[in-house]
Design a protein that fits this description.
Topo_IA_cen_sub1, 6-stranded antiparallel β-barrel, DNA-binding, alpha+beta, EC 5.6.2.1, disordered C terminus, 6-stranded mixed β-sheet
Length: 862
Amino acid sequence: MKTVLMVAEKPSLAQSIAKILSRGSMSSHKGLNGTCSVHEYTGTFAGQAVRFKMTSVCGHVMTLDFLGKYNKWDKVDPAELFSQAPTEKKEANPKLNMVKFLQVEGRGCDYIVLWLDCDKEGENICFEVLDAVLPVMNQAHGGEKTVFRARFSSITDTDICNAMARLGEPDHNEALSVDARQELDLRIGCAFTRFQTKYFQGKYGNLDSSLISFGPCQTPTLGFCVERHDKIQSFKPETYWVLQAKVNTDKDRSLLLDWDRVRVFDREIAQMFLNMTKLEKEAQVEATSRKEKAKQRPLALNTVEMLRVASSSLGMGPQHAMQTAERLYTQGYISYPRTETTHYPENFDLKGPLRQQANHPAWADTVKRLLAEGINRPRKGHDAGDHPPITPMRSATEAELGSEAWRLYEYITRHFIATVSYDCKYLQSSISFRIGPEHFCCTGKTVISPGFTEIMPWQSVPLEESLPTCQRGDTFAVSEVKMLEKQTSPPDYLTEAELITLMEKHGIGTDASIPVHINNICQRNYVVVESGRRLKPTNLGIVLVHGYYKIDAELVLPTIRSAVEKQLNLIAQGKADYRQVLGHTLDVFKRKFHYFVDSIAGMDELMEVSFSPLAATGKPLSRCGKCHRFMKYIQAKPSRLHCSHCDETYTLPQNGTIKLYKELRCPLDDFELVLWSSGSRGKSYPLCPYCSNHPPFRDMKKGMGCNECTHPTCQHSLSMLGIGQCVECESGVLVLDPTSGPKWKVACNKCNVVAHCFENAHRVRVSADTCSACEAALLDVDFNKAKSPLPGDETQHTGCVFCDPIFQELVELKHAASCHPMHRGGPGRRQGRGRARGRRPTGKPSARRPKDKMSALAAYFV
DNA sequence: GCAAGGTC
């Protein structure tokens, strides 16, 4: 029997499509990467009985990057990134082993049907899948067609079955347009980012951003925020005047009237109107009206609207909201949360999800009534052909979700119920008055039926006092007319919700990437999120955008994306040649880049106003080994040491603190050592600023500290302080932390394993002898007399931390506290945990003896 | 160390 391989874009879709096509009778198993599943069933294909294998990828299989050597920032001129630097496709997520997985599943298959999302990215992934799978599939006989593309516009039985019945071919042009986009984004983004970062970080010390990035989406996103900032700055308040009248409607009730002219900007004119109005004692009713109006129920929920509401009403940032929604989705509480569609497909079962909410304490009454009296048909929305709108799939309580997830779930559910509820109906009545020559009016709203506002109370029509019943010609006594002086007020900073709307409108990013771009400009310290989730640009953000405006405004305008996309669409439609468009657009941006570099002084002038030169930043910390003057420690990101005399900068490990290490010096270069520490619960090690930036030995990499230095005799090196191989990671070595006393620690120089050894020792040294059982270096420990754990009056003991019975009792394995709990080794991560108390694996070279000491030394002295 | 786009 022949086999048909079918591939969807994500595991969830593979499952739903397989379920539909197999009519529910399929057998499923997990693939080798543990993420994608394979669903198998039998059926007919091209008139023969076949076995179907439906599986998926996880988004893009491949990603584009430069060849390795072009990723060395100090060796490559960014201008080379526009053409000379070759690119290569790498696996997007090596952990998923997607190519291998596809080849295992595709081997021996006869046909392939591509079920990737029906957009340009999906079309591109089709070819990534084919590149992986075609070489291992069975060869076609006599020109028989073996590659098919299924095109569907929704995940419904009819649509999926129709797609299967009318298979087409993947569209190479659409895929090429994505290849072009990837290459453009990579080359342009990296060239500008590297140039800006190197240029400004080489001059200023307090930019407080480890990266001065540029990109066709993130830069316009920042541009919107700065545009609003500029409006606020240039705003000049204007004074205006308003007439306000009050009439008596009853003995003790009065009615406030609005002026038809709203406001005037000339005091004397306003005064004139006031004087004329004041002459009248009565207000005459000129007309009355009563109109029934409706407030429409919401459209079904898509991603972008969910993110807007999450930000503006729940105070939840887009990135966080998306993570929360994804968790709700994988736990089965809501449908797929990434969709542009606001229209329920025909035949969508609305009542099913609604019934599940019928006993929920928060909205049981509303839901039961809807089910009993009949639901309303949802409004006609936009069908983007991706996924149905975001819908609750199962009832949940705050207790089981936790308060954050609950608030999002509650909103999604209330929104869903609202879409099948009725419009809110209210009566709008208004009365227009004349007082002397001037016209006034008042309006009031009364609710006829609340409709969906019952489940979305924040949308309800505000309660107002009802208007008096009257008719044309009636008169009321004027109780007061006064003139109010007011001022126009500036707009406020852009809210995140407004920014999302602007991005959507200008086509900056997609529903999935909008949160990423917003997150980016926060992380780069271009904007900060203020109260009410308003985005206030920082000095850095403002200077960058103003600099682009000054040099080449197109770099920051939202059209930078749409203009390129227009070109890409020509490729997709087969109207332009991929190579030509790519070459032409790269050429345009290469010119822009050179012009930008030549004009950078224009942006620099702005930088000078806000930021301090490197030489004037930071405080003196340690001595330079070349000139022996103090270098300054710059704490702001990226933290580094700067020698103003030599005009050299030495970067330091990030996310920790640095202090001087006893004025000790590196024997190789005479630089004073500094002590890096990740905090009291973390680890610390000495570091030579020079060696860390210019590794002395062949087997050392940039950024390493003394705990990874293979110097054979330096008292701070790995060679002298190393004990034995790490108990968890493959390549790490446990190194004595010479500064950790009196609570002595041994820490891995690669991962975050920390072993707490001795609490009451005043001296610990690494002995030259090694353990006969496990090859680890012995520790020579002097305990405090009063608190010695040794028998009798003994205070001195030498032994192996892993094998010595006395030491074993004292060793406790921990993990260095890192900024993110995810990075702490969780339980069950790998076997062999807790081996600190056991024997070391033998047969591996000891840390005390670097493999090739002489060659390491030779490398240094060459 | 960089972009933006998929998705986990």
